[in-house]
Amino acid sequence: MTSTATASLATDLGAYRTSLRAYLNNGDALDRWRGKHHGSTEDRIAEHAALMAHLYQDGWNRYGWPAEAGGHGGDERHRGVLYDELSAAGLPVPDPQLMLETLGPAVVRFAPDLAARYLPEYLRGANWWGQGFSEPEAGSDLAGLRCRARREGEHYVLSGQKLWTSHGATASRFVCLVRTGTPESRHRGLSMIMVDAAAPGVSVRPIALASGYRELAEVFFDDVVVPADRLVGEEGQGWAVAMYLLQWERAMYAWQSAAVALRRFRELLGQVAGKPLPDGAATRIGECYGDIVALRARSVRTVRRLAAGETVGPEASVDKVLLATAETSLHDLARDLLGTDFVLGAGADTGDWRADWWFSRSATILGGSAEVQRTILADHVLGLPKEPRA
Amino acid sequence: MTSTTMDTATAELLTGSLRELFAGSAGRAVGPALAALGWAEVVAEDPAGATTLLFTEHGRALASSPALDAVLLAELDRVLPAGNGTRAVLYPYPDDGDQPSTVDGPVRGLLLAGLESVDEVVVPVRANGAVALLVADPAGCPAEPVAGFDAGSGWLMVSGWQPAGEPVPAAQPWERAVAAGRRALAAEIAGVCQAALDLAVAHTSARVQYGRPIASFQAVRHRLAEGHVAISDIASMLDAAWATAGSANGGAWAAAMTKLRAGRAQAEVMRHGVQVLGAMGLTSESEMHRHVTRAGALDALLGGHRLLSETTGRALLAGAPADPVVEV
């Protein structure tokens, strides 16, 4: 594609959508990624990374990212269109895009040098990142985290542990929120830093979900030496970076999930077509479709706000609640419509639904639990009297 | 990006005017009061913003008027002979969703206000499977005030009526009218819900038990937060519905989904609203019950959320595409 054509797609969202749709539906070049079942998280993510490489080569997943970071320009709406069109074409949204959406914008904003160095290889699927936020003693209460980074000359030395890291077993870098202040400094003494998974002293233990898929990991840092230029933002600015990052984690993840949910909903309808269904199935199907559409309607507003450079505040928790509702609703519907087959069936389609059902249970936990989201709305949107502190 | 072009200052000004209007007029007096306000120009300028504002305030005030008739008539009048005075709309009986009675039997349905000052009743009927309209003389229309869940609706039930008139084919105008009506009703339900949530927030913030406001207890806070999510859901669905309102069928699918979500939202908001008010919530001494019953009545009109869920699910099972409804 010529640079003039690229520039015009970066400024003309409708043209980007039309051209991308034509590309995705042209011939069988992408069939390798359609309707596939993967026996492990590692296989799946490697295949998805290959899809990113393919999209990168033809330029399509570079829109929405700045040229300095390997992109073609454009904004969040381009990324939103990509996820939607992939789903409409029966293709997966590549797994690594999830953490790219979460971590990418904060790295671009607070560490443009790191973005220039490392984002292009992420976009072409050569490697991807994990997010090191949660710890054994700091889940919902993130400000209590203890993983330490102490400054020594031009380096930081990291020691401690992170937990529940998505894609942790295969990620080549971790973007970690670490304590650089005193243990009592709560959210004030935190910094964000990018650590190589291959650095001496990093060890990773995969964690399997109940489905057997190793979606998460535990990461240990034993005096890991990290160059000081790997900071994302200034030392002590970690909380602000994390809050900035949360806007994308809540909003773009919601849109991605809504796009994928609509594809899976269509697939489910195809799988149960003509089979006997339980009483009330039609009503459940209509309700679930409504949950997905409502998530899209809410999420698209937020994607547009991010694209316009607005700050998305506590009201992003509404998106997160609707996301969890839709995810739970879809996978419970699949479970109920498949019935005994869900429990006993040996088919690959059914196996995928079982694995996805377990993963869908995380929708009310990861990125701030359902309880935390409701508390944010109660405190910061409705302005209710606060709960007393323990 | 929303379909409305209204700026915040204008919206606030109009909101104030509408609140005054609904405090001072009801029933068929609302139409002339809106005309005096120059409302037609506001609608012409920004149909999405004006309609949403009008019906949200109508809901918030728990107003009782046939304002919705004007929304449907804006579509139906296009195929009808020029009007002769004031027209009223006969709405399908709620169990029938958007499907009116057949032309060859007695019709049943709802009127939103009495017929004293009405010159013509527009009666949708099904003729050979498609919707047509009769323009009927109100004289002889057997309309009885509704004495049901919502004592304040001012609605009338019509049954066993055999109106005379020549059916005018109106399949697409009816589909468009229903879509427009559902968008307006969703906004009205949002207004009722917001008023109920405001009541619940005020009550629980003031009411002290165990030495602190009950809104500081997590169980109460989370119910109110869920109410807020449900109301926000209606607002974003209305954006989506208005974005397709200009299509040939009036954005029927998105409007139906919006009405479905509004109906679900009111069920959720009212369940939580009644609960957090304690025993007050189910007495006539609190205003909460008026919101519960009005929201229930509005949910039923032009198809309640359960009916819409079932018909949507059946359509999807029968092969209707799972429309994305929203694009970036």
TrEMBL record, chain A:
Residues 236-381 form the Acyl-CoA dehydrogenase/oxidase C-terminal domain. Its cofactor is FAD. Gene3D superfamilies: Acyl-CoA dehydrogenase/oxidase, N-terminal domain, Butyryl-CoA Dehydrogenase, subunit A, domain 2, Butyryl-CoA Dehydrogenase, subunit A, domain 3. Keywords: FAD, Flavoprotein, Oxidoreductase. Residues 132-224 form the Acyl-CoA oxidase/dehydrogenase middle domain. GO terms for cellular component: plasma membrane. GO terms for molecular function: flavin adenine dinucleotide binding; oxidoreductase activity, acting on the CH-CH group of donors. The keyword Flavoprotein applies. Belongs to the acyl-CoA dehydrogenase family. PANTHER family: ACYL-COA DEHYDROGENASE, ACYL-COA DEHYDROGENASE FADE29. This is Acyl-CoA dehydrogenase. It comes from Amycolatopsis acidiphila. The lineage of its organism: Bacteria, Bacillati, Actinomycetota, Actinomycetes, Pseudonocardiales.
Automatic annotation (TrEMBL), chain B:
Pfam families: Acyl-CoA_dh_1 (PF00441). Gene3D superfamilies: Butyryl-CoA Dehydrogenase, subunit A, domain 3. GO terms for molecular function: acyl-CoA dehydrogenase activity. The keyword Oxidoreductase applies. Keywords: FAD, Flavoprotein, Oxidoreductase. Residues 178-303 form the Acyl-CoA dehydrogenase/oxidase C-terminal domain. This is Acyl-CoA dehydrogenase. It comes from Amycolatopsis acidiphila.
